[in-house]
Automatic annotation (TrEMBL):
Listed GO MF terms: siderophore uptake transmembrane transporter activity
Keywords: Cell outer membrane, Membrane, Receptor, Signal, TonB box, Transmembrane, Transmembrane beta strand, Transport
The protein, known as: TonB-dependent receptor
Top-rank lineage group of the source organism: Bacteria
Family statement drawn from the similarity comment of this UniProt entry: Belongs to the TonB-dependent receptor family.
Gene Ontology BP, a term: siderophore transmembrane transport
Membrane topology: Multi-pass membrane protein
Organism encoding this protein: Arcobacter cloacae
Subcellular location: Cell outer membrane
One cellular component term from this protein's GO annotations in UniProt: cell outer membrane
Pfam families documented for this protein: Plug, TonB_dep_Rec_b-barrel
Chief localization: membrane
Amino acid sequence: MKHKKFIKIIPLFLPALLLGEVTILDSIKIEEKTEKKTNSIEIDLEKIEQTQANSLFDLFKKDSSTQVGGAASNTQRIYLRGVESSNLNISLDGAKQGKNIFQHRGNELGVNPDLLKVVDVKTSPDASKGGALGGSIQMSTKDAQDFAKNDKTKGVILKTGYNTNSNTKLGSATAYQVIDKNFGIYTNISGVNNDNYKDGKNNEVYGTAYKDRDYLLKFSMLDVKEQDLKITINQNENSGDFQWGRLGSDTGIHDPNGSNPLEKIISTTTNYTIQHNYNPSNLINLDSDLNLTKVEVDRKTNKKKYENENIGLKVQNHFDFDISNTKNRVSIGTELQNEDTKGSFDPNTLDVAITKYAPTSSQNKALFIQNQTTINDLNIYYGLRFDDYEFETGLGKAKDNTFSPNIGFDYALTSNSLVYANYGKSSRMSGIIPFTWLTNIKKDTTYSKDLEAEKSARYEVGYKYTKQNTFVNDDYIGFDMNIFKTNIKDLIVSKDVRCVAGVCGSGEGGRTLQDIYNSSNEFESKGFEIKTIYNYDIFTTSLSYTKIDASDITDNSTGYIGVNEQSSIRRIGAYDSKKFVWNTGIELTNSLFVDYSLNAIKGIDNEFLKRAGYVTHDVSMKYKPSISSSWTYFAAVNNLTDKYYGSHSTIAATNNADSYRREMGRDFRISAKYEF
């Protein structure tokens, strides 16, 4: 019967299938059948499990709005609409994530993707989310109650897998128990062991081997006297023989006897979170979050350690009430973030005589209000955030405060379509400077001018259409298009003591800092998106296209004549991008689901960057013998055609050079999950 339904819609798609090379120019992406909210990007976590994501970064590779650069696990970065992840508000169970560590290294982001329950990527401004210069990524882990199905109250889930390209071995064990459906606890231990991977030309890419270890313990009390309480402890440890900076860390080139040696580096991120909700009435819906994030970097070969610690407290209440013909939600809250950095005294050998060690700290106190008013077919969103900042380094203490307003709306033109728009500002006092740089400050030096908070302004206008029963009964079609722009100014950057021809570096190579100041350069990312989806019974297909124009900042961030590498792509934003994604899937039987993805990236050829475009193909499948079966099997092939390519958001060793790390070649992945 299911296949008879599918046959009904084949004539609708047959012309597109016969003219596949033409329709590839249209827009593409896959979403769920449920209606999508405006200003947000939903990640299908069930499909992520099927594609066998090995890291958090794998979640964002198959959406046209997001890019992942760096290739190696220790250098990867996420870009949302061209804005790099350290400029986003990223949290895991409320704990702050995404801190920059050093020079060519990526952000410290790690969790077993199989444990994630919600990944909410939001592009619109929100006064309750501080430091969201380019948007936010809010992630929540599963509760024990999510594992307990079919009246089971306890159980164990085991998973193992293997990937061919990098000789990857992975395993995971989860044990859970639920008492009276209200109280639950579970623990998970998982790990990934990777050798160096090979690119599309079968070249071994050095410095890409790694080990990941994830540990999680979570207690959840749900719906007890109008209260929810969740307590989580989780840790991600990433280790391997990597390069600590140096140009080779971007290229994957390694000379064991030369100037680019590898060293043993262990990076550990530990999160402690307590989340509580009390909701006895429409006027009392109180959320309280207390969290601690601790990032530790151990350069075991060189016997140096660094530590960054962030403590956060956030309390907000949602008031829901009706006045006349309006429905209202008013959310009022306060937030406190306190960050401290310390580490080994680690000056460059050329700077030993002029440096001193000083810990770094910053504090953010905030008050905010975020409202929603509904008048018939019109929803109005508006809010205001006040931030008070303190930022203290070896150069002294700096203070600033900002007001960040936002306003937006969506209006239903018909029962199937709406228009939406939003505008908002955001600010932050620390972010893109790697925290290990801030421990090397030149003695008796102060800020050259008053330091101000970084600021952003975001704009978006869009149209959305959704309809059921368009071609056949119970089908679903969705269309969303928008234009957007993000502008970031007053970026806090650093200047080191190495100056050549009047141009100073920003701290590369461990050089000592002599100043921290607001850059006169502004970064802007603007563009448009077109996304469409069609679902019918056992079949789903989606297309998405995102075009981004980024303002390239042509500063010399290294201090070396002729290099002129842009710091913007490291910690601010990516280059121009035209990305097209097609996802399509079909449930062949009640037990077997197959999915295909195409990613097409247009090449770049301008005065700043020259890189070829590329097209990659991925196939995955999921097989569960029966609904009651304890076994689930997964198989996938990534980069099916063994394409030799590199992400456009991966840093090059030199400007316009071909020396940048290529992505993984063809990779076969298999895994199995057993539940009892």
